[in-house]
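lol so apparently i was supposed to do this last week
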Amino acid sequence: MPATAPATSRANAESDPPVLRVDGLGVRFGSQQVLRDISLDLDAGQTLVVLGESGCGKTVLLKTMIGLVRPTAGDVAFEGRSLSRMNDRQLAHLRTKYGFVFQGAALFDSYTIADNIAFPLREHTRLSEHEIAEIVGTLVDEVGLPRTVLLKKPVQLSGGMRKRAGLARALALDPQLVLYDEPTTGLDPIMTDVINELILRVRERPRVTSVVVTHDMSTARKVADRIIMLYPLFRLRPDEPQIVFDGTPADLDRSRDPRVRQFIEGRAGNRLTELLEEQGLTERGRPTATDGGAVTDDETTDDEEETT
Ligand SMILES: Nc1ncnc2c1ncn2[C@@H]1O[C@H](COP(=O)(O)OP(=O)(O)O)[C@@H](O)[C@H]1O
Ligand SMILES: [Mg+2]
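anyway here it is w/ adenosine-5'-diphosphate bound
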């Protein structure tokens, strides 16, 4: 399965309105602000990769795109229609135009693979069982699974096979927008590349727009037309934009921004010290002098007991 060169069939993309517009988006959970003032237009046919360290808000951003998380500021619009103005029925209909591949594949454990993939077709179409079986067969072929998996349960499949079955289900309704959340996490490098190739194949479907959340640089470099990198808000000043990078994979490699370089080169920097400090420990593993609380059980000494 050769990786086909992207972009050729997308000559008209610029003149079309964005498929998805994220405008001044903010999300807060209680006192924790997770996303702040995110604006982003997604063109038809584009594959956007969202990079960023764990906890910076990537999954939350994906969930606002499908209306699973309601923003506390700003808005998301799909083909010019604001999600915040849709009722539950309209949102449910909208989601039939989306395919999502969530972390851990999220298959129904008690269903066979065939029933898992058929699920959206049974829910949202009036196709006959015969037609459904035919589509399910084509989908497993498309993701490179043998048809013998159809009668198996998810638990009988390897991680990579489950991810592919999850992708087949996501494609069942022929979505316009496919969202992937960490599609290669937990896979070995070869299976990671199989998934990368499948993401490339999916983007060759006419007019499919994709958003791929990942921290895998091989995936980012291979599938992206465009990459954005989010940064955790607590590491930013109030006036600094949360999207710290927006460009092509080649631009990313040329970036001089230390936050970008640290991520793509996978350097810990001072993070270990920070993590230990969060636990009230110094780098030597002893409690810090200023800390009164977070001492773990096995670190507790006699004179530290009953201080609260
Ligand atoms: N439903 C929720 N309620 C409260 N906090 C949440 C919720 N969803 C996510 N968060 C918090 O938002 C932050 C970003 O989460 P997430 O988007 O999952 O990060 P990641 O970039 O790793 O995908 C985390 O601190 C997480 O705990
Ligand atoms: Mg996540």
